[in-house]
Amino acid sequence: MEETISLQDLFKTLKKRAILILLTMLLAVTAAGVISFLLLTPIYQASTQILVNQQKMEQNQFNTQDIQANLQLINTYNVIIKSPAILSKVIENLDLNTTPAQLNGKITVNSAQNSQVVNVSVQDPEPYMAVDIANTTAEVFQEEIQKLMNVDNVNILSPAVLAEDPKPIKPDPLLNMAIAAVIGLMLGVGIAFLLEYLDTTVKTEQDIEELLNLPILGLVSPISEGDMPSAKDSLQRRRRKR
Q: Which N-terminal residues, if any, form the signal peptide (predicted)?
């Protein structure tokens, strides 16, 4: 016989296992909170912007072809900024105890579409260090790009600044706890239905009918001790009848 599950059965299962579901969700949220607040290292970010042009034209004017050429070279500039030629000098200037490859993992370089502005973002556990690395990287690039590509018009539009009360960009405890709540809820519901599926005990007359595939002819109602006559009452009734 094919088993069918109605919405009513689903709601009964959820109601029956509601405590388990809530405990699973609470446990997941608590674990996410503890990990986010106590175990994960806060990461801070600092950013600076660089404007890169070709050599200055007469009267400081640029034609359309020059601008298009600059846009095509933006990807090249992005690679150069994260190259060992630049990062090695940044490490030397700041006396960092790291390698160019490790420093490369902290730096993100990108540019907006059809823009000659290059954004340099640095992530570090120390907010002041993120600011120093971002500004030093921009300064070293401004110096070295003249030798590498004969570009003599590099301007730092906005240097990185250390905020009075810097906020880490990650981890985000509230977001992590919200995600954990959803995962915990889904896990709790899954465990509830799994337990219900594995529970093969017979509890109701419907379970017997489904198990034996036979109709129910009658039921024996439960009788409490209060409803059952005592032996003393039965004896007195018999004496009265005599």
A: none
